[in-house]
């Protein structure tokens, strides 16, 4: 058994035993590897964000939080390739890139057999040109969207005009490989789209923003016909 299937199986072994603990020696015997290999695997799972933990002393060992892990998921080779293609879009400077990286590590541990092979082969054939969104800007935008707070932007328009303005974030639009923050602009008193790689600075104000419907702010713009991604439909509750 190579490492990727073993990581997946290791998680399932701990899930099956939970809330009981399993010793490294027992896990090593189960997978016919050395205790050192099991220790390395468990450390890799921890670094990937899998909720495994260790307890010391009599009766100690390794365990996992079943409530924070997924049951077995069997991906087809096509589904695994689709996931790789989707994850590739989230390059190091894209929104939520850090969370995407840890999520992708969790997905990788669930891939076995043909699915794992297909994912590895496609991943080796994809390259990206990262966008130029700075990490502080990306972090500030993510936080403002999560907290629903007003954001203070320094922005450069397509014509090169610089401006500072306070905005009330409503959501995100992606088009032609670019990301836009859609927000109510207090300066213009209207909905506006701000391309992330043109935001030179973004600072949270801590002020709670008024709620705005994303579709309402897009009315009358070139993006008025934007629709929610089909792949996200199952995540959105019906009205």
| CATH topology title of the largest domain | SH3 type barrels
Spell the H/E element sequence. Answer: HHHEEHHHHEEEEEH
Low-confidence stretches: none
Q: What characteristic shape results from the CA principal axes?
A: elongated
Helix content: 25-40%
Provide a quick synopsis of the model.
The protein has eight helices and seven strands; from the N terminus they run αααββααααβββββα. It is an alpha+beta fold.
How are the elements arranged and paired?
Blueprint: H1 3-17, H2 24-31, H3 35-47, E1 52-55, E2 61-64, H4 77-89, H5 97-108, H6 113-123, H7 135-147, E3 149-156, E4 162-175, E5 178-185, E6 190-195, E7 199-208, H8 214-218
Antiparallel strand pairs: 1-2, 3-4, 3-7, 4-5, 5-6
Helix pairs in contact: 2-3, 4-6
Q: Describe it for me?
A:
The protein is 38% helix and 23% strand. It is of the alpha+beta class and 239 residues long. It has three domains: 3-67, Arc Repressor Mutant, subunit A, CATH 1.10.10.10; 77-123, no CATH class; 135-225, SH3 type barrels. A hairpin with a 5-residue loop joins strand 1 (52-55) and strand 2. The longest helix is centred in the first third of the chain and has 15 residues, at 3-17.
Question: Main attributes?
Answer:
Arc Repressor Mutant, subunit A; alpha+beta; 3 domains; five-stranded antiparallel β-sheet; HTH_11; SH3 type barrels; Helix-turn-helix transcriptional regulator; WH_DNA-bd_sf; two-stranded antiparallel sheet; 38% helix; 239 residues; 8 helices; elongated
């Amino acid at each position: 058994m190579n490492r990727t299937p073993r990581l997946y199986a290791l998680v399932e072994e701990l899930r099956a035993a939970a809330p009981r603990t399993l010793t490294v020696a027992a896990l090593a015997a189960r997978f016919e590897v050395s205790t050192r290999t099991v220790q390395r695997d468990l450390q890799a799972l921890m670094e990937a964000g899998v909720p495994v933990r260790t307890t010391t002393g009599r009766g100690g060992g390794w365990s996992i939080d079943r409530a924070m892990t997924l049951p077995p998921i069997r991906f087809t080779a096509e589904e695994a390739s689709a996931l790789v293609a989707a994850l590739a879009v989230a390059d190091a400077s894209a929104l939520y890139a850090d969370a995407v990286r840890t999520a992708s590590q969790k997905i990788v541990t669930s891939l076995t057999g043909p699915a794992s092979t297909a994912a590895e082969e496609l991943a080796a054939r994809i390259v990206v040109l990262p966008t130029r969104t700075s990490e502080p800007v990306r972090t500030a935008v993510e936080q403002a969207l999560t907290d629903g707070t007003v954001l203070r932007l320094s922005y450069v328009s397509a014509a090169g005009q610089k401006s500072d303005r306070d905005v009330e974030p409503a959501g995100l639009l992606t088009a032609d490989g670019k990301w836009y923050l859609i927000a109510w602009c207090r300066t213009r008193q209207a909905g506006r789209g701000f391309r992330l790689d043109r935001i030179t600075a973004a600072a949270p104000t801590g002020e709670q923003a008024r709620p705005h419907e994303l579709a309402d702010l897009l009315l009358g713009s070139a993006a008025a016909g934007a629709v929610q991604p089909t792949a996200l439909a199952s995540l959105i509750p019906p009205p």
